[in-house]
User: What shape does this take?
Amino acid sequence: MTYSATQEPCFVLDGVTKSYGERRVLDLTQLTIFSGERLALVGPSGSGKSTLLRLLNFLESQTTGAIRFQGQAYDAQHKAPLEVRRKITMVSQRPVLLNSSVTDNVRFGLRLRGERDARDQALAALEQVGLPGLARQPARTLSGGEAQRVALARAMVLQPDVLLLDEPTANLDPYNVGVIEKTVRTLNEQQGTTIVLVTHNVFQAHRLADRVGLMMDGRLVEVAEVEQFFETPTDPRTGAFVRGEMIY
Amino acid sequence: MDELGSGLRQATQMIFGGDAALMEIVWLSLRVSGVALAFATLIGIPLGAFLGLRRFRGRRLTVALLYTGMGFPPVVVGLFVYLLLSRSGPLGQLGWAFIPKLFTPGAMVIAQTIIAVPLVAGFTMAAVMGVDPQLRQQVQSLGATDWQTTLAVLGEARIGVIVAVIAGFGGIISEVGAVMLVGGNIEGKTRVLTTAIVLETRQGSFDLAIALGLILLGITFFINVVMLRLQGRTLEA
Assistant: This one.
């Protein structure tokens, strides 16, 4: 699904900050993420990208400011209820799989939601990530690329409104990168899932995203549609980052 | 060596001969330690999981107390329970029906529960803390409630949790000080394997003491094997 300005906002962040003790790691003036878009966040390590994903997943509360999700505002005092949290899921850079079979891992989230069997859905999700033959395999025996694809399958099977991806292809070989990118694109195009991708890889951001944002020192430097971000950025730091120049 | 061989023979005869007095002692030992272990498991696993997963003010002190409890001498626990349950003690003088009296299996269960809880909780806490911290976040991200997250972490730490239960059982089936103090080693009433071994040794019946010791070892071994089997693991794994 291609981003368009007429789309409904999925997330609206206003004045959101996050501090750990005295250290402020995130300071966002304003960010809107639209339903059904693919937004990539790029930037150097420690720029607050992963922290932002945890806030969007409601795994942590912001220190100040408001996060509106599908029109409803949440903060530390008004935490997102379970049914809201269950509309959003995340795939991390280093997936931790349960010490059980691949199928059990994929249907884990469905079982949390009270679905007893869910075997068929799990197998369908494994098919989507190209691993139908590994259903009975112990998850701990998988390679890094296979484990990441299983992690993607266990997130996809939940049919979330929003899929957050935190460096999902870091350290993976080109084949696995290709499978994961294709799966994410298909999920977005066929089901309208909103994708927020954090990546160090500007080429991946270019390939996958409708819009790209650059984060530095916890702040959003610029967010723009992909062509503008790469061809005619408004902030000189964006241009330098895209050209691979050291800006930090 | 003669006494060891004789003890082994006598143990075999007593076990396969179905010696009634022995069976009574074995049954009471298993009953007391089994019930105490059940209570300790019900208290210790949630406590260990809580301490392993939550950060709160006073946690360090609580953990230090727990570690102290893991090394608490059983005889001191026995003394503590003795003083609690004696007629002039804070619980004993209440006279409530559900509070066990001294020199009963109930008193022994209380003492053994107090001994086992820190062991089960301490090893459970260590097992839970050994689980990759990323797992919690990823499970929560998949939509788990706090309770489901705790269960998932305990599931991943299951080998350690089973070890915690085994350690708790090992700590109480083999202890003698507490059950001697609060049980009194009364024949047919509160005599268990360990107190019987002490008695037989004092009376010079070394072969009988060895026989009882071997039976105690056998029970411990058997229960450990069963617990490992329950985990779907063999001793070779």
Summary: Residues 142 and 149 of chain B are 10 Å apart (CA to CA).
